[in-house]
Amino acid sequence: MIIDCDTGVDDAQAIMMALSRPDVDVIAITCVNGNVDVEKVCRNTLRVLKVCDAQHIPVFRGCGKPIIHSTEDAQFYHGKDGLGDLRNEIEVDLSCIQEEHAVTALLRLSKKYPGEIQLVALAPLTNVGVALRMDPEFSNRLQSLVIMGGNMHGKGNRSSSIASEFNFGCDPEAAYMTVHEMLCPIVIVSWELCLDHVYPWEKVQECMNADTEKARFLRDITRASMTTQRARQETGYRSCDAQAMAIALEPSITLETLSIHASVELKGDLTRGMLVSDWRKKLNKSPNVTFVTKIDTEKSLTIWMNMVHV
């Protein structure tokens, strides 16, 4: 597995989940601008690896801007540092960041392990889009791509585009290239799926009350996002990247899927970055993405809770 991320609160949880599984070999983490700037993303990724005693995993700095122009970040939710404004500072050595760019690392590793790599993309797809431009055969060498991003029914979560999801909206061009040019199977974990599948508050609190360093770290980084979600009177705790990672880690979590042809809107003032599905098959094109439409939340929760113990 390679994890492409913009390490904020839920990215951190997803990384911890992957590292808790002995059957998964995370061979690289590639960083990209998104929730916060790419330098903070790199720092946060090293923080997570330190807490998980997994500092042997190489971390690569990727694209610091979207392909076309800059958009908003998500500091309002993830904090200025991207990890809920950590109260207990975790010092890391930024010289540990690999000198090789994330995009060239993706290309190199896909050649080294052809047909073996599951790429899990939890962030704006800038690194993936640039990799496709540098080497069109890149996606042929991947086993699969799991994306947390996009939407099925036009529900958005951004201030500048009411109908787009954050990761797709931050770099619509990269998202467009990805859904149209990727040749390996693409699994989409949409914003709406995450809205419909949340973790019970009491179980989340139980997980954070565990007497482990990982649980204390989880409690620290999640404090602000939990407060925000409770203030919105949400029925449970929502962690989008955690749901995407659970789906990538355990296929049996997925209960229902829908394969369809989809594209990304690039021009609309209100819809730029929206993932648009051809529900009526007007384009007469073969499906290029598979939406996960229903999951076993209890199985997902089990993986999420186990991450603080392993």
Can you tell me about this structure?
It is a single chain. The protein has 310 residues and is α/β, with parallel strands linked by helices. It has a single domain (2-306), classed as Alpha-Beta Complex (Inosine-uridine Nucleoside N-ribohydrolase, Chain A). The chain is 38% helix and 15% strand. It contains 12 helices and 10 strands. It has helices spanning 9-19, 38-51, 75-78, 102-112, 126-134, 166-170, 172-181, 191-196, 201-208, 213-231, 240-249, 297-306; strands at residues 2-5, 28-31, 59-61, 117-121, 142-148, 186-189, 254-260, 262-264, 275-277, 289-295. An 8-stranded mixed sheet has the order 3-2-1-4-5-6-10-7, with helices on both faces. Strands 8-9 form a two-stranded antiparallel sheet. Strand 2, helix 2 and strand 3 (59-61) form a beta-alpha-beta unit. The longest helix is centred in the C-terminal third of the chain and has 19 residues, at 213-231. It is globular and about 55 Å long.
Q: What is the SS-derived class?
A: alpha/beta
Strand arrangement within the widest β-sheet reads 3-2-1-4-5-6-10-7
Radius of gyration: 18 Å
Query: What is the approximate shape?
Result: globular
Q: Helix tally?
A: 12
Mean pLDDT figure:
94
How would you name the CATH homologous superfamily? Ribonucleoside hydrolase-like
In whole angstroms, how far apart are the ends? Answer: 18 Å
CATH-defined topology: Inosine-uridine Nucleoside N-ribohydrolase, Chain A
| Count of individual beta strands | 10
* Largest beta-sheet details: 8 strands, mixed
Give the domain tally.
1
Return residue spans where pLDDT drops below 50 for at least 5 consecutive residues. Answer: none
How would you describe the oligomerization state of the chains in this entry? single chain
In terms of DSSP E residues, the strand content is 15-25%
N to C succession of SSEs: EHEHEHHEHEHHEHHHHEEEEH
